[in-house]
Design goal:
Shape: extended
Radius of gyration: 25 Å
Oligomer: single chain
Number of helices: 7
Distance between the termini: 21 Å
Helix content: 25-40%
């Protein structure tokens, strides 16, 4: 079932929470309207910093690419950004770290998904152990199941795995590509799928001999008469295959 966008958002309202981050602690004497220039400069400086940080930009693009994939698959009830806005918490159970997204499945299951990009040359994902622990504490506090989505840019593939699949190495949690593929839950939870054929898969273009013309200088003008897609030597004619 297709997903539709919720509230469109209002820039005038959405920018207001940024003021709390942009301005130093209020002194109780000056109104927010008196500090408009200060707010604009702080937000502009922060934007400039992010645009100059290639790693941050790649992470942001990967995060919203994942959102687009989930929306396109249309197998969930809801997906919402989880790691925006301020929050207060009881730290007796340790640090909390909100993952990137909250996803609600058709059966009501709550997933909390942290999205990561893996560089093209790497076949192993790495997460700081303390960050994973903080995300797990957040999941426990909010009643969701924590999962990690990785885009393996060298392979052009997504995987979605439980934290238990990672291996602890020193201060890091590591996930080899092979283990991620074996434990991948993108299909079972989010409705992802893979297209497979028997080799060889070939695409052939046939020319119409009756429409072949001389074009001068030993060139010939050709007209495409048809195309064929074959799997293991067999022409594919079924539109659903």
């Amino acid at each position: 079932m297709p997903l539709r966008r919720g509230r469109k958002g209002n820039l005038g309202l959405e920018v207001m929470p940024l003021i709390e981050l942009a301005l130093p602690s209020p002194d109780g004497q000056r109104l927010l309207s008196d500090r408009h220039g200060e707010s604009v400069k702080a937000i502009s400086d922060a934007l400039g910093e992010s645009l100059g940080n290639i790693s941050r930009l790649q992470g942001w693009l990967t995060q919203y690419a994942f959102e687009a994939v989930v929306v396109a698959l249309g197998s969930v009830r809801l997906i919402k950004t989880e790691d925006s806005g301020l929050f207060y918490f009881d730290d007796s159970d340790g640090e909390l770290q909100p993952p990137d997204f909250r996803v609600v499945l058709r059966d009501g299951t709550q997933l909390l998904i942290e999205v990561k990009n893996v560089p093209p040359a790497s076949l192993e994902a790495k997460v700081r152990a303390k960050d994973m622990a903080a995300a797990q504490t957040y999941a426990q506090a909010t009643g969701g199941r924590l999962l990690y989505a990785h885009f393996w840019s060298g392979m052009g593939m997504w995987t979605l795995v439980d934290p238990s699949v990672f291996n602890r190495v020193g201060s890091q949690q590591r996930l080899p590509f092979v283990d991620a593929i074996k434990a991948n839950e993108m299909q079972s939870l989010l409705g992802d799928g893979m297209l497979a054929t028997e080799p060889l898969l070939t695409f052939s273009v046939a020319m119409d001999p009756e429409k072949e013309k001389l074009a001068g200088n030993d060139w010939r003008a050709l007209t495409i008469g048809g195309v064929e897609l074959r799997s293991a030597g067999q022409v594919i004619t079924d539109p659903d295959k």
